[in-house]
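Hi R.,

Here's the chain you asked about this morning:
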Amino acid sequence: GQTQYVLHLTKDVGLPNDRPSFLLDAQHHAREVMTPEIARDMIDYLTSRYATDPQVQRWLDNVNIYVVGSVNPDGAMYVFTTDPSWRKNRHPSCAVDNNRNYPVLWNGCNGSSASCGSETYRGTAPASEPETQGLIQLTSQVRPFFALSYHSYGEYLMYSNGCTDPDERGALDEVAQGLNAIL
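And the predicted structure, written out as tokens:
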């Protein structure tokens, strides 16, 4: 019953533009309660420094930045009201790990389960969940050049769906190492 929101940050946000897009999403897993706080910190950083920080002004003048503070708002509400270790969404018949529900490599890489009771249950079909559908719809509309899905477990960067070896491996490794150094 909760709503999944996206915030769009850029110069002249109400006007159409052809700037590239960046997407940050947080809280695929309900119990990752710090990830929406990181998303809020990013929003605060960008909005409070636009007038005084040339780098922030350059970003917002030249990039469409989209922030989804909670991919899984129903699961998040359940964490705060009922079970602080809840991970999945709140599908009424069988809760799903939204992070395992995307169509790309769905049921691949041995990283999900077909069992409803599993913490990594992938759902009955690719993109079967409204949370997944919402993020897919957003990415289809804004076509980000870079997307970051922020999680609070692991302290590592995964790319190219986490289980394939892309042609762009060298470039992705360089970006990942740079981000890792910052983080």
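The CA atoms of residues 94 and 116 lie 6 Å apart.

Let me know if you need anything else.
M.
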